[in-house]
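Form 7-S
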Amino acid sequence: MDWGNAIVQSKEKDANGNITSLIMDLNLGGDFRKTKKKITWLAQPTASHPLAQVSLVDFDYLITKKKLEENDDVKDFVTPVTEFKESGFADANVLEVKKGDIIQFERKGYYIYDGVKDGVREFFKIPDGKAAGIASKAGVTVVDTPVAATISAEKKGQANANEDQPITSMYTVDTVYGDNAQIDVGAASNMYEVESIYKS
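Output:
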């Protein structure tokens, strides 16, 4: 792990097509940032250093809408699947962690150890705040406001119209300047009035 570049010379597979071994030549002069394929491996297990069977658990939002309105039926916005488990093997050192310990799995992220369940060590993913990490895993298009719903309908009905309007799960904000202004800024604020910088 973390040695750098290597060039694969040959590989062996089992009857199921799983790769069981690789023969590689180290190419430490290569640039790992330009290497397209990356592999992670574990040391051959022994009686004193067995591989640990682990379950990596991730969760999704309970509902598919950021804010429920008074007339919304919660059943219409329940996320169909909110728990995702990925099974695997980890280094023998994982056998030494204690409940509540936080570790990083290479190229997976940070996890907190929750304990053993059915002989498998469970780790819960810690959100990292990145866009990919906080996006809903349910694959449901989130509609927050009538404005977003209108944009969706327009895009379905007019293939080329509004092509620059992205469908988004972010909150919609009314336009406060220009010809299409939707808010009277003067009425919306008690702050001192300042001449608009958007005047043409």
